[in-house]
Protein backbone atom coordinates (compact mmCIF):
# COMPACT_ATOMS: atom_id res chain seq x y z
CA UNK A 1 0.00 0.00 0.00
CA UNK A 2 1.35 3.45 -0.92
CA UNK A 3 1.96 6.00 1.87
CA UNK A 4 -0.85 8.21 0.53
CA UNK A 5 -3.35 5.36 0.49
CA UNK A 6 -2.29 4.38 3.99
CA UNK A 7 -2.87 7.95 5.19
CA UNK A 8 -6.31 8.05 3.62
CA UNK A 9 -7.20 4.77 5.28
CA UNK A 10 -6.12 6.06 8.68
CA UNK A 11 -8.11 9.29 8.25
CA UNK A 12 -11.20 7.36 7.17
CA UNK A 13 -10.88 5.07 10.17
CA UNK A 14 -10.57 8.03 12.53
CA UNK A 15 -13.65 9.73 11.02
CA UNK A 16 -15.67 6.53 11.38
CA UNK A 17 -14.53 6.12 14.99
CA UNK A 18 -15.46 9.71 15.78
CA UNK A 19 -18.92 9.16 14.31
CA UNK A 20 -19.43 6.09 16.46
CA UNK A 21 -18.26 7.70 19.67
CA UNK A 22 -19.88 11.13 19.24
CA UNK A 23 -23.05 11.70 21.31
CA UNK A 24 -26.25 11.31 19.31
CA UNK A 25 -27.98 14.59 18.46
CA UNK A 26 -31.56 15.00 19.50
CA UNK A 27 -33.89 14.87 16.54
CA UNK A 28 -36.00 18.00 16.15
CA UNK A 29 -39.70 17.25 16.45
CA UNK A 30 -42.86 19.19 15.63
CA UNK A 31 -45.33 19.86 18.43
CA UNK A 32 -48.91 20.59 17.34
CA UNK A 33 -50.82 22.63 19.90
CA UNK A 34 -54.54 23.31 19.85
CA UNK A 35 -54.98 26.47 21.94
CA UNK A 36 -57.80 28.82 22.90
CA UNK A 37 -57.71 31.94 20.69
CA UNK A 38 -57.00 34.23 23.64
CA UNK A 39 -53.62 32.54 24.14
CA UNK A 40 -52.25 33.41 20.70
CA UNK A 41 -50.00 36.38 21.47
CA UNK A 42 -48.45 34.95 24.62
CA UNK A 43 -48.15 31.39 23.35
CA UNK A 44 -46.32 32.49 20.21
CA UNK A 45 -43.73 34.27 22.36
CA UNK A 46 -43.35 31.24 24.63
CA UNK A 47 -43.02 28.92 21.64
CA UNK A 48 -40.20 31.06 20.23
CA UNK A 49 -38.19 30.62 23.42
CA UNK A 50 -38.86 26.89 23.53
CA UNK A 51 -37.84 26.46 19.90
CA UNK A 52 -34.61 28.38 20.48
CA UNK A 53 -33.79 26.22 23.50
CA UNK A 54 -34.65 22.82 22.05
CA UNK A 55 -34.66 22.98 18.26
CA UNK A 56 -38.19 21.57 18.24
CA UNK A 57 -40.85 23.33 16.19
CA UNK A 58 -44.16 24.39 17.70
CA UNK A 59 -47.17 24.79 15.43
CA UNK A 60 -50.34 26.13 17.00
CA UNK A 61 -53.95 26.15 15.85
CA UNK A 62 -56.07 28.83 17.56
CA UNK A 63 -59.85 28.86 17.82
CA UNK A 64 -62.62 28.73 20.39
CA UNK A 65 -62.10 25.95 22.91
CA UNK A 66 -65.32 24.27 21.83
CA UNK A 67 -64.22 24.13 18.19
CA UNK A 68 -60.82 22.72 19.08
CA UNK A 69 -62.25 20.09 21.42
CA UNK A 70 -64.65 18.90 18.73
CA UNK A 71 -61.79 18.71 16.23
CA UNK A 72 -59.82 16.52 18.61
CA UNK A 73 -62.91 14.36 19.11
CA UNK A 74 -63.07 13.99 15.33
CA UNK A 75 -59.49 12.74 15.19
CA UNK A 76 -57.40 15.88 14.64
CA UNK A 77 -53.75 15.04 15.45
CA UNK A 78 -53.14 17.51 18.27
CA UNK A 79 -50.34 16.90 20.77
CA UNK A 80 -51.45 19.42 23.39
CA UNK A 81 -54.81 21.02 24.17
CA UNK A 82 -54.95 24.37 25.99
CA UNK A 83 -58.54 25.25 26.82
CA UNK A 84 -60.03 28.46 28.19
CA UNK A 85 -62.32 26.55 30.55
CA UNK A 86 -62.47 23.30 32.44
CA UNK A 87 -65.59 21.94 30.78
CA UNK A 88 -64.12 21.27 27.34
CA UNK A 89 -61.07 19.64 28.87
CA UNK A 90 -63.41 17.49 30.96
CA UNK A 91 -65.15 16.36 27.77
CA UNK A 92 -61.89 15.17 26.22
CA UNK A 93 -60.66 13.56 29.43
CA UNK A 94 -63.93 11.64 29.81
CA UNK A 95 -63.54 10.41 26.24
CA UNK A 96 -60.01 9.18 26.96
CA UNK A 97 -58.47 11.60 24.44
CA UNK A 98 -56.13 13.45 26.81
CA UNK A 99 -53.73 11.92 29.32
CA UNK A 100 -55.24 12.74 32.70
CA UNK A 101 -51.89 12.57 34.48
CA UNK A 102 -50.58 15.46 32.36
CA UNK A 103 -53.52 17.79 33.03
CA UNK A 104 -52.64 20.99 34.83
CA UNK A 105 -54.36 24.30 35.56
CA UNK A 106 -51.96 26.51 33.63
CA UNK A 107 -53.32 30.07 33.79
CA UNK A 108 -56.10 32.40 34.84
CA UNK A 109 -57.55 35.59 33.37
CA UNK A 110 -60.10 38.32 33.99
CA UNK A 111 -62.98 39.73 31.99
CA UNK A 112 -63.19 43.32 30.72
CA UNK A 113 -65.46 45.61 28.74
CA UNK A 114 -63.54 47.32 25.95
CA UNK A 115 -64.06 50.16 23.51
CA UNK A 116 -61.94 51.87 20.90
CA UNK A 117 -58.93 53.76 22.24
CA UNK A 118 -59.89 57.27 23.21
CA UNK A 119 -63.52 56.26 23.46
CA UNK A 120 -64.24 57.63 26.91
CA UNK A 121 -63.44 57.41 30.59
CA UNK A 122 -63.58 54.11 32.47
CA UNK A 123 -66.80 53.22 34.27
CA UNK A 124 -67.80 50.89 37.08
CA UNK A 125 -70.20 48.12 36.14
CA UNK A 126 -73.09 47.84 38.57
CA UNK A 127 -76.76 46.85 38.44
CA UNK A 128 -77.65 50.43 37.53
CA UNK A 129 -75.20 50.73 34.64
CA UNK A 130 -76.98 51.59 31.37
CA UNK A 131 -74.98 49.47 28.98
CA UNK A 132 -77.57 49.78 26.21
CA UNK A 133 -77.24 53.57 26.23
CA UNK A 134 -73.45 53.28 26.14
CA UNK A 135 -73.76 51.21 22.94
CA UNK A 136 -75.51 54.14 21.23
CA UNK A 137 -77.40 51.80 18.91
CA UNK A 138 -74.31 49.74 18.04
CA UNK A 139 -73.44 46.13 18.77
CA UNK A 140 -71.82 44.52 21.79
CA UNK A 141 -69.12 42.15 20.49
CA UNK A 142 -68.84 38.86 22.34
CA UNK A 143 -67.62 35.37 21.63
CA UNK A 144 -70.40 32.79 21.15
CA UNK A 145 -72.31 33.09 24.39
CA UNK A 146 -73.40 29.45 24.66
CA UNK A 147 -70.28 27.69 23.37
CA UNK A 148 -67.06 29.71 23.66
CA UNK A 149 -65.72 30.23 27.21
CA UNK A 150 -65.25 34.02 26.91
CA UNK A 151 -68.83 34.37 25.73
CA UNK A 152 -70.14 32.08 28.46
CA UNK A 153 -68.28 34.04 31.14
CA UNK A 154 -69.45 37.33 29.66
CA UNK A 155 -73.10 36.34 29.52
CA UNK A 156 -72.94 35.15 33.14
CA UNK A 157 -71.37 38.44 34.24
CA UNK A 158 -74.03 40.50 32.49
CA UNK A 159 -76.76 38.42 34.07
CA UNK A 160 -75.15 38.89 37.48
CA UNK A 161 -75.71 42.64 37.16
CA UNK A 162 -79.11 42.37 35.46
CA UNK A 163 -77.73 43.75 32.20
CA UNK A 164 -78.16 40.81 29.86
CA UNK A 165 -81.81 41.46 29.04
CA UNK A 166 -81.16 45.07 28.00
CA UNK A 167 -78.41 44.15 25.51
CA UNK A 168 -79.17 40.57 24.41
CA UNK A 169 -80.69 41.77 21.14
CA UNK A 170 -77.62 43.90 20.41
CA UNK A 171 -74.96 41.21 20.89
CA UNK A 172 -72.78 40.47 17.86
CA UNK A 173 -71.56 36.93 18.46
CA UNK A 174 -68.12 36.10 17.09
CA UNK A 175 -66.59 32.66 16.59
CA UNK A 176 -63.94 33.30 19.27
CA UNK A 177 -62.77 36.02 21.60
CA UNK A 178 -60.09 37.35 19.22
CA UNK A 179 -62.78 37.78 16.57
CA UNK A 180 -64.83 39.76 19.11
CA UNK A 181 -61.75 41.87 19.84
CA UNK A 182 -61.33 42.53 16.11
CA UNK A 183 -64.89 43.85 15.83
CA UNK A 184 -64.12 46.54 18.40
CA UNK A 185 -60.61 47.20 17.14
CA UNK A 186 -61.90 47.80 13.60
CA UNK A 187 -64.76 50.02 14.76
CA UNK A 188 -67.45 47.57 13.67
CA UNK A 189 -68.73 47.42 17.27
CA UNK A 190 -68.44 50.23 19.85
CA UNK A 191 -68.01 47.87 22.79
CA UNK A 192 -67.01 44.29 23.44
CA UNK A 193 -66.39 41.80 26.23
CA UNK A 194 -63.03 40.03 26.09
CA UNK A 195 -60.28 38.85 28.42
CA UNK A 196 -57.86 41.34 29.96
CA UNK A 197 -55.05 39.66 28.02
CA UNK A 198 -56.87 40.32 24.73
CA UNK A 199 -57.22 44.02 25.53
CA UNK A 200 -53.47 44.19 26.11
CA UNK A 201 -52.78 42.60 22.74
CA UNK A 202 -54.34 45.42 20.69
CA UNK A 203 -53.44 49.08 21.25
CA UNK A 204 -56.48 50.20 19.26
CA UNK A 205 -58.76 49.28 22.16
CA UNK A 206 -58.99 50.40 25.76
CA UNK A 207 -60.52 48.91 28.88
CA UNK A 208 -63.77 50.65 29.76
CA UNK A 209 -64.64 48.51 32.79
CA UNK A 210 -63.52 45.39 34.60
CA UNK A 211 -65.93 42.69 35.70
CA UNK A 212 -65.47 41.50 39.28
CA UNK A 213 -64.17 37.97 39.57
CA UNK A 214 -67.26 36.85 41.45
CA UNK A 215 -69.58 37.87 38.61
CA UNK A 216 -68.76 34.68 36.68
CA UNK A 217 -67.16 31.29 37.17
CA UNK A 218 -63.40 31.36 37.75
CA UNK A 219 -61.50 31.70 34.48
CA UNK A 220 -59.07 28.79 34.36
CA UNK A 221 -56.98 27.55 31.44
CA UNK A 222 -56.31 23.81 31.80
CA UNK A 223 -53.65 22.22 29.63
CA UNK A 224 -53.01 18.56 28.87
CA UNK A 225 -51.23 16.30 26.45
CA UNK A 226 -53.27 14.08 24.20
CA UNK A 227 -52.84 10.33 24.50
CA UNK A 228 -50.78 10.31 21.29
CA UNK A 229 -48.34 13.04 22.36
CA UNK A 230 -44.60 12.33 22.20
CA UNK A 231 -41.73 13.45 24.43
CA UNK A 232 -41.29 16.77 22.63
CA UNK A 233 -44.90 17.70 23.38
CA UNK A 234 -44.46 16.77 27.03
CA UNK A 235 -41.31 18.89 27.12
CA UNK A 236 -43.26 21.88 25.79
CA UNK A 237 -46.02 21.35 28.33
CA UNK A 238 -43.37 21.31 31.06
CA UNK A 239 -41.79 24.47 29.61
CA UNK A 240 -45.15 26.27 29.76
CA UNK A 241 -45.20 25.67 33.52
CA UNK A 242 -41.70 27.06 34.01
CA UNK A 243 -40.48 30.51 35.00
CA UNK A 244 -39.64 31.73 31.49
CA UNK A 245 -43.10 31.00 30.09
CA UNK A 246 -44.87 32.25 33.20
CA UNK A 247 -43.07 35.57 32.90
CA UNK A 248 -44.36 35.91 29.34
CA UNK A 249 -47.92 35.03 30.30
CA UNK A 250 -48.00 37.53 33.15
CA UNK A 251 -46.56 40.27 30.93
CA UNK A 252 -49.37 39.56 28.47
CA UNK A 253 -52.12 40.01 31.05
CA UNK A 254 -52.73 36.47 32.32
CA UNK A 255 -52.71 35.43 35.94
CA UNK A 256 -51.12 32.36 37.49
CA UNK A 257 -52.98 29.61 39.36
CA UNK A 258 -53.80 30.62 42.91
CA UNK A 259 -53.33 34.33 42.30
- Unreliable stretches (pLDDT < 50, length at least 5) are 1-25
H and E order: HEHEHEHEEHEHHEHEHEEHH
End-to-end gap: 76 Å
Number of helices: 11
Largest sheet: 5 strands, mixed
Structural class label: alpha/beta
- Proportion in β-strands: 15-25%
Strand order of the largest sheet: 2-1-3-10-4
CATH architecture classification name of the largest domain: 3-Layer(aba) Sandwich
Q: Number of domains in the coordinates?
A: 2
User: What is the CATH class designation of the largest domain?
Assistant: Alpha Beta
Assembly type: single chain
Estimate the global geometry from the Cα principal axes: elongated
Number of strands: 10
The CATH superfamily label of the largest domain reads: Periplasmic binding protein-like II
Proportion of residues in helical segments:
40-55%
- Give the rounded overall mean pLDDT: 91
Radius of gyration: 24 Å
CATH topology descriptor of the largest domain = D-Maltodextrin-Binding Protein, domain 2
Write up this protein.
The protein has 11 helices and 10 strands. With 259 residues, the chain is α/β, with parallel strands linked by helices. Strand 1 (30-36), helix 2 and strand 2 (57-63) form a beta-alpha-beta unit. Helix 3 (65-73) runs parallel beside helix 4 (86-94). The chain is elongated, with a radius of gyration of 24 Å. The model is unreliable at 1-25 (pLDDT under 50).
List keywords for this structure.
259 residues, cell membrane, 10 strands, 20% strand, 11 helices, 2 domains, Molybdate-binding protein ModA, D-Maltodextrin-Binding Protein, domain 2, 5-stranded mixed beta sheet, elongated, alpha/beta, molybdate ion binding, disordered N terminus, membrane
Amino acid sequence: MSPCRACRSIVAALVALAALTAPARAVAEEVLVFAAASLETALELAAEEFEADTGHEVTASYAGSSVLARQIQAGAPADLFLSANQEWMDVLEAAGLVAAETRVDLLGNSLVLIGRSGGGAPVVISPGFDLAERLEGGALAMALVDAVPAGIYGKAALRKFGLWEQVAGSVAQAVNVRAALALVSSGAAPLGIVYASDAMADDRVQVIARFPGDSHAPIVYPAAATVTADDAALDFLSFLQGDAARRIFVEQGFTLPGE
